[in-house]
Design goal:
two-stranded antiparallel ribbon, 9 helices, 4 strands
Length: 252
């Protein structure tokens, strides 16, 4: 039996697996982003790209904390100060949605009209895959594990119960999504911004489904807070694609 959480000892210090792989994923993802930006022609100037990254960072930080805290609404509404928010939970779903909102707000402020998300798709996927390794090794203490199950992939993640390894499922999905998007990018003619929309839609659809296997409280119509957020963004993107591929062909 493996004892969770699985931590690392480096130079005489103990590091949590969650923090270690989160930092490693961010570092490698950023290095891959730099490589892609040098290799391709960025539609944004250096200054505007920095502003966009700033907007994404602020939006992701706020979105991750706000939506992460809303997973348990009773805790969120018990906060007495804004500082309590940053002591609560966090979620990559909120980070992605908040980052998207932060970028769009920043682009309006600086007057940038070009798409900015495609260049970030593969670096973000790499960062997420590596980060989820830390979630997997942290077990139940990370609050991302699945519900109890008899499924053959289930195993004890620190509380004596066989649970769905939802972080492992996500790592596999993200790897598949990486290669699917690569194939779509090379075989289909995409408009600027389409790659990011496909990435975010694919991931949020996965999270909407996989969160049925997590012990999160139901908020509305049997859905949790994260699932509702995923559904809202999916409906927004569905409207965009329907308008482009259906109505444009009707009048084209």
């Amino acid at each position: 039996m493996v004892d969770f959480p699985i931590n690392f000892f480096l130079f005489g210090y103990e590091f949590s697996s969650h923090l270690f792989f989160e930092l490693l994923g961010s570092f490698l993802g950023f290095q891959y982003y730099r490589y892609l930006r040098k290799k391709s022609k960025d539609s944004l100037s250096d200054v505007n790209r920095l502003y966009v990254i700033l907007g994404a960072t602020i939006g992701a930080l706020l979105g991750s904390r706000i939506l992460g805290s809303l997973v348990y609404p009773e805790i969120f509404f018990s906060f007495t100060s804004v500082f309590d928010l940053f002591l609560g939970g966090k979620t990559i779903v909120g980070g992605l949605i908040g980052g998207l909102i932060g970028v769009e707000i920043m682009k309006k402020i600086i007057g940038e009209k070009n798409s900015s998300g495609d260049l970030l798709v593969y670096p973000v996927l790499i960062a997420m895959m590596i980060g989820r390794i830390g979630c997997l090794l942290t077990g139940v203490y990370d609050n991302t594990v699945g519900v109890e199950t008899d499924f053959f992939l289930g195993f004890d993640q620190g509380d004596g119960l066989s649970r769905h390894p939802t972080s492992l499922y996500e790592i596999v999905f993200l790897a598949l999504l990486f290669f699917v998007l690569k194939n779509i990018e090379t075989s289909k003619k995409l408009l600027p911004g389409d790659l990011f929309k496909l990435f975010l839609s694919g991931y949020l659809l996965f999270r909407f489904c996989i969160d049925f296997l997590k012990p999160y409280p139901e908020v509305f119509l049997g859905l949790g807070s994260l699932q509702i957020a995923c559904l809202l963004v999916l409906l927004y993107y569905a409207k965009i694609f329907i308008q482009r591929f259906f109505f444009s062909s009707q009048h084209g």
